[in-house]
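Pilot study result, target chain (191 residues):
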Amino acid sequence: MKARRSALPGALVSLAMLAVCAAAALPTDSLYQLRATLTTQQGVAAGFDVYRGQPTVISMFYGNCPSYCPMLITAVQVYEAHLDEASRARLRVLLVSFDAAHDTPQRLSELSKLHRADPQRWTFASAREPDARRIAELLGFHYRKLPDGSFDHSQVITLVDGEGRVLASTTKLIGDEAFQAKLAASTAAPR
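Predicted structure:
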């Protein structure tokens, strides 16, 4: 029994070192280098690298947006609808709200259901300042709060590989053939 107890601390140290090495193994151009905390629609804290290991479409939004954000979410759905079923199953979608004060887990869950997003592959999350601003900066996304509480913002859809490297980015809500081709290639069955 003593031998088992003395081996446990060594095993824990090995596991901790393995986790550190895995995090350090990220490419230098990985967006996942950013350590940011998100709150998901389930109310769970997650890292910005929540879908590490999977090709992921990432964008930003806010839940009370009257027009552009619902169109952006629909655009992501249209882009993924052009993929075959197996490719869609490999794709993940991360939508990050920059209005954490209003986009609570309950509101994010409502939005996910409203847009009929697959909860196994889609995550609606919010980020508080300064994390939201840092994520926006990485994605080339711009937003500013207006006096009435709404936001003026850009629209950018970004595709990253499993290690968080940007493969493609688009501001077109429909018909960006180059983006669609990169999306198809990144989600194709491994050879």
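One observation from the pilot: The CA atoms of residues 10 and 37 lie 30 Å apart. A full batch analysis is planned for the follow-on phase.
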